[in-house]
Amino acid sequence: MNAQSILAAEFIQLVSFYKPLLMLITFLPWAWLISSKLDKDARYFHLNNRMWNGIYLGCGVAALATTLVIPIFWISWPAGILVLYCPIYVYWQVRNRSVPEGQQFTFTGEGISAKLASRKQSRATHGAAIQFIDNNNKNRDVPLKEEPLYIVHVLAEDLIGPALAARASEIRLEIGAAGCNVTQLIDGVRYKREAVPVDVALKMIDYLKDISGLNIEDRRRTQKSNFSMSSTGTKTQIAVNTRGSSSGQLMTLTFDRAEKLQKPFDGLGLLGSQLEALRKFELEHERHGIFLIGAPKGHGLTTSSYSFISRHDAYTSNIKTLEIEVQTHLDGVDQIAWDPSNRDVDYSTNLQSILRRDPDLVLTAQIPDRETGSVVAGPGMSGPLIYIPQAVSTIAEQIRSWVSIVGDLKTAAKSLRAVTNQRLLRTLCPNCKQPYQPSAQQLQKMNLPSNKIKQLFGPGGKIQVKNKIEACPVCGGTGYLGQTAVFEVMIVDSEIQRLLTAGDLKGALAHARRNKMIYLQEAALSKVIKGETSIEEVARVTASAKANGRSSATRKTPKPQVDPAASAT
After folding, report:
1. Which of 32, 219, 366, 401 is the most exposed place for a label (fewest CB within 10 A)?
2. Rounded-to-integer distance, Cα 178 and Cα 199, Å
3. How far apart, in Å, are the Cα atoms of 373 and each of 347, 367, 406?
4. Most confident by average pLDDT, 86-90, 217-221, 223-227, 446-450
């Protein structure tokens, strides 16, 4: 073979198609890795990306030269790869020593497994309807489908999701000998839901207790905590209360309670004349004495108590509360929680300490004993205005309870300024309420003026959609949407104080009536006339009060004081 043939063979070997292809396969991933990954990574962690880019470029030129200069390709190509990728290894080592824990690069199976597990968990979370957030405000991972807790999570979603969609304010799970009863509270009315097997209910209770940070093993004592949940972009706060009984466990879930407890004073449901009568206590020279706020359990006593105290300007007045449990935050108000388990400081001592600081207004918890009653009544008309909630059904009961707790009729009467009592009524759904013309007999029975009232409203619950009758989407078919309160308001003047001091409670109530005090049922019928609620709802609420004797809500109804604007409805 001559020299020309040898040169031709070497040229053919040099330009063989696979050599440029191998070089291309070597350099293209290198260029992509540097431009799209390493440069951005160095920028993010402030690792002098310009310096590293210069090193990569210099090594790239050196690798290309090494591959072309060394005559034997199978030696030059591996040497070029080593020169090309060596600085990437160095950057990996330098970077891992500089970045925070958990941000290191790793080529181990552990890192890959963690990423795969994270992706799997992400798919599970996106597949869930509800994301729970524990009492430490940390997202709880949704159990994976193959985990035993997954079905429990789904059942918890099926419990809470429909309740929120139906506007429920509370869910109750009560485990007894016959099974687990599930109920939900909507606008103050409790509705039964499908019962849950005991074993399933216990798993759900334990699951939710764990999320809220409660002791799962303790099934006897009362435990309280909270957690939250996120669904379709909406976050809901959930208060949890669990306790044991002789027959089983009871769990109550209350939704957004703190938010619902805050209502403006003029949005409670007081009639215009009642609002006007109570406005005087906002004046500085009237902020003295005792103000009793009453309602049966479940009729808005806590909401009204917070509303009455928060109507005062907290930035120009010194306002304090002493509560067993602070249930919502009031701006500018110094709210103090008393711990009943602390035997070193009793309630009366704590309250006395507050009164010594000369507050302008005070809201207490319900007065627990006579000692506390004397502490509260002691300042009288020279002390602050003190609001006292009472879970009783009538103004008469409130006054009797107040006198009993103070222990001295004269002291109790002298310090008393006002007494209110209330009930909650459901308000008609504006989307589906049904107008009707009441008969003269119906109006006469309710002692309403038949010549002025031409139309009233009742609950609908159904609407017509394209010739089909469907449940109202606004109220969920109940016919009602929300609640309002109706009040009796007794302003205690000097004559009422004189009658109370003489022990004439009946005379004091009669005098209040002569001063145009509006009875509960009158206030309720006024809302019927305005189309806010229905006769059926008034009958339901007032009928539940009959067991309390001759309450003002169930007296023979005198002729209501009808607002002319309302009677034109």
Report:
1. 32
2. 12
3. 11, 6, 5
4. 223-227
Query: Could you please report the per-residue DSSP string of 186-199?
Result: ETTEEEEEEEE-HH
Topology, domain 132-259: Beta-Lactamase (3.30.450)
Q: Where are the domains of the chain?
A: 3-98, 132-259, 265-567
Do residues 350 and 362 lie in contact, with contact meaning Cβ atoms separated by under 8 Å?
no
d(CA 430, CA 483): 13
Q: Report long-range pairs for 196-205 (Cβ below 8 Å, ≥24 apart).
A: 196/155, 196/159, 198/248, 200/155, 201/173, 201/175, 202/175, 202/249, 203/152, 203/155, 204/152, 204/155, 204/156, 204/159, 204/173, 205/173, 205/175, 205/242, 205/249, 205/251
Structure confidence at residue 17 (pLDDT): 65
Give the max Cα distance, the chain.
142
* Calpha distance 556→198 (Å, rounded): 48
What single DSSP character describes residue 108?
Answer: S
Rounded CA separation 5/13 (Å): 12
- Dig out the tokens for 431 from the structure: 């989307």
CATH fold, domain 265-567, is: Rossmann fold (3.40.50)
Per-residue pLDDT at 324 exceeds 80? yes
Mean pLDDT of the chain: 85
Q: Euclidean distance between the first and final Cα of the chain, in Å?
A: 119
